[in-house]
Amino acid sequence: MSYEMNFGQAYNEQLPTLGESMSEVIRFFGGQHIYGVGGDFAANLIAALDADEQRGGIKIHPSSNEMHAGFSACAQAEIDGMGFCLTTYMVGSLPCTSAAALAVTEGLPVVFISGAPAESEVNQLAIHHTIHPNASWKTEYDNALEAFSALGMRVERLQGQRIDGHPNIAGQRFYQIVSEAYKNKQPVFIEVPRDQVFAKTQPIKLPSSLDNICCASNILAGTELIVENILTKLSQAKAPMLYLGDRLKHNEALKSLIITFAERFNIPYATTWFAKGLFDEYAPLCLGAYNGIFTQTEGREYIEKSADYVIDVATSIFPQDCNIAFSTGTHKIETFENKTLLKGGSLLEKDLVVIFEGLLEKNIKSFDFGTVDQTKVSKENTELSAGGDDVDFNNLAQTLNDLQAQDESPYVYLPEVGNSYFASYSLKVRQSILGRSWLTNPWYGAMGTTLPYARVVAQRLKQYAEQIPELKERAVVIIGDGGFHFQLNELIHFLKDQTDVTIIYMRNNVFHLGKSGDGPIYHCNDKEFDVHSLVKAYQGRSKTCTSVSEFKDYFKICKQQSGVSLIEVPAKPIEERQSNELKLLNLYIKSQNGQIEAVQAWKKLTT
Ligand SMILES: Cc1ncc(C[n+]2csc(CCOP(=O)(O)OP(=O)(O)O)c2C)c(N)n1
Description:
Elements: H1 3-7, H2 9-13, H3 18-28, E1 33-36, H4 43-54, E2 59-62, H5 66-80, E3 83-87, H6 97-106, E4 110-116, H7 143-150, E5 154-157, H8 170-184, E6 188-193, H9 223-236, E7 240-244, H10 252-265, E8 269-271, E9 286-289, H11 299-306, E10 309-313, E11 339-342, H12 350-360, H13 379-385, H14 393-406, E12 411-415, H15 419-423, H16 450-467, E13 474-480, H17 481-487, H18 491-497, E14 501-507, H19 531-537, E15 541-544, H20 548-560, E16 564-570, H21 580-592, H22 596-606
Parallel strand pairs: 1-2, 1-3, 3-4, 4-6, 5-6, 7-8, 7-10, 8-9, 10-11, 12-13, 13-14, 14-16, 15-16
The site of thiamine diphosphate has 20 residues, from α15 and α17.
């Protein structure tokens, strides 16, 4: 029995293929790009998506390998709101598990799409790319589904018509799983049997807009009482502040409601470390990213000495060590008494949206905040950064801050895990057109993500610059040599995409962060390695810069150059050349270990 006999000829004739339906759903969720690597099980999917590209739709970008495709999709989710990754069966999808774990942890809606054997192939014989020791007595097809499922993700293999004439619901299932990712800000994994891509599926009628996806309204009661409670506390406060967390990162509407609220009543705001880069740190009310003793901004003084009421919004429900000053007991907001916690438990933070909408309707006095002196850095910072004119981790952030202060065009910083990551917390960021000017995976902390992330940032900046020629924003990667060597095959895509990036290559010839011994495992580089020849192969330009002034001059030149520009900084893996954050962390660890001098120095800093 065909559909025709079941629902009639008119219905039958308007049926799309699954591939068409998937393209439509991907575009509905804002997916203009997919990062991936091909393979035989993905060939039909690629053909279907390529057809969409030819109609001016989705663009497929090849990555250097699947893990990088996954990481680029994560970056895409960070800046576009949704990420899409396409791979072949098992050999292609399994390398994405690290990116998927990152997406689970960082709360990123990434759709991992994998080709799969045809339904007609299953149960006939063992299929290549499956995990199949030669002593197996049965075939296994679901290992990738199980692997992603073990990460706590929603996984599904789409299925075709079970019986002739019965409805094929694959298109609808695809929509439902992708919308789960969108609503919950979590990745999903979908396998698509290759014989289903061109099979007809039931047509779907998409909602009029993303706002109209069902079940996304606030179901938490008591908003009015919460608003009243905040109003009472505000009326008793002299120096209130907002403390903003990273759950805001996908919610532009809520971000702008909060900023409107802050500006209307002159209430200053700080972010957690993990929410760094979401707001313009040059804005008069912005106190920067706060993390107890590790905070370098002038805003810290207001938070620790003046603030008498904190509205804590969208921060983590479970305390995370790095975000609460590594449990040093110096994070004043963590233990602040007069605080309202608005964690945001509803889908798409609708509960927070109604609270801020409610607050904006009320009559609140405007507070007398004055302004933070945005030019000063804290005393400890200056003291701890002192170390001569050589550029190194101890003064890198300050050097970049000097450059950014003089340059109206934002730098979009991409710090790699390692010393670069810690040093980057002292960067003061402008607001980028991308809505993010500091982008990494701060909690999961996977090394090897920065170039796949920077690729996406550079692509988007190029797209924007095509529409707004005066836009001069720049992707700036800060990376150790170990981290660079993890992923430098991704450089080919900057050449192919004709995009621009400045890479600050902090060369110390070791995996320094976390190094505990001198074993060969820490030696990630060779003294003879010539990074300039490598950059040249990618048609890029580079220079070794030793002094701060040389660095500043060349950084400005890089900004004018297209393609890959790299600044090699000879970094010394010694204590004096560490960033303030790491010096403090090391001091804390030593004092915890009972070293007398460290105990005294830590006491002096914290009392
Ligand atoms: C995928 C992954 N592997 C290992 C680590 C552990 N790790 C964190 S930092 C680091 C060393 C970084 O060395 P490098 O990139 O040279 O930068 P440096 O700290 O020397 O500046 C390592 C191995 C990690 N975070 N992620």
